[in-house]
Design brief:
Blueprint lengths: L6 H9 L14 H11 L11 E6 L2 H8 L7 H6 L2 E8 L6 H4 L6 H6 L2 H25 L3 E5 L4 H8 L4 E10 L15 H4 L4
Antiparallel strand pairs: 1-2, 2-4, 3-4
Helix pairs in contact: 1-7, 2-7
Length: about 200
């Protein structure tokens, strides 16, 4: 059975999509980011908890504050990207559950009253949403450059409070000159999938 999604869309989202390392100076608009979010917010999370929060770093001052915490190899591309999104797990996501699960508002206290449980669940589910976000950036015709090479504690102190945990930074924009490194190999189906 073949995939239902149009082959051109498959290429845009997966086969031809790459992590960009250079970007043009064409801006990424608030309207584009809103469209990305309005698409990817429908991706599933456990209990519809939706713990991902996004901090957009757009200003020169914000960029300067961010770049100093990036790993050396990530600094130039972070400084040059039109937009950087900090993708963050909200450990207080449970406060939104009565609105997100109106049929079961007691889930907030029944399952997520303890902080360690919330932290674990927020980390997993926000990571799912981060993947959806990257696919959404691609669906908008933009390139994403997700990175985890940074001083997380420094960025969290600079931009977040104690209830939010940084997952990754994503450079976003139109790919620039020599944006792509060579494609690396992937594991085959037989190396990944086991049937029991």
């Amino acid at each position: 059975m073949s995939l239902v999604l149009d082959p051109a869309a498959q290429d845009l989202l997966f086969r031809e999509a790459r992590t960009a390392n250079t970007f043009t100076d064409e801006p990424v608009t608030d309207e584009q980011v809103q469209a990305i979010y309005d698409l990817v917010k429908y991706g599933p999370t456990a209990f519809n908890q939706s713990p991902l929060r996004v901090v957009l770093v757009r200003s020169a001052e914000g960029r300067e504050r961010l770049v100093k915490h990036m790993a050396e190899g990530n600094r130039p591309k972070t400084a040059a990207a039109p937009l950087v999104a900090l993708l963050v797990a909200d450990h207080e996501f449970h406060e939104e559950l009565p609105a997100l699960m109106p049929h079961f508002p007691q889930a907030k206290d029944a399952f997520f009253s303890e902080r360690p449980v919330r932290e674990q669940s927020a980390g997993l589910n926000a990571a799912l949403q981060a993947a959806y976000f990257i696919i959404g950036v691609r669906a908008a015709g933009l390139a994403a450059g997700p990175m985890t090479g940074f001083d997380a504690a420094g960025i969290e102190k600079e931009f977040l409070d104690g209830d939010h945990k940084l997952l990754m930074a994503v450079n976003i924009g139109k790919p620039g000159e020599d944006a792509w490194f060579p494609r690396l190999p992937r594991l085959s189906y037989d190396e990944v999938v086991t049937t029991v």
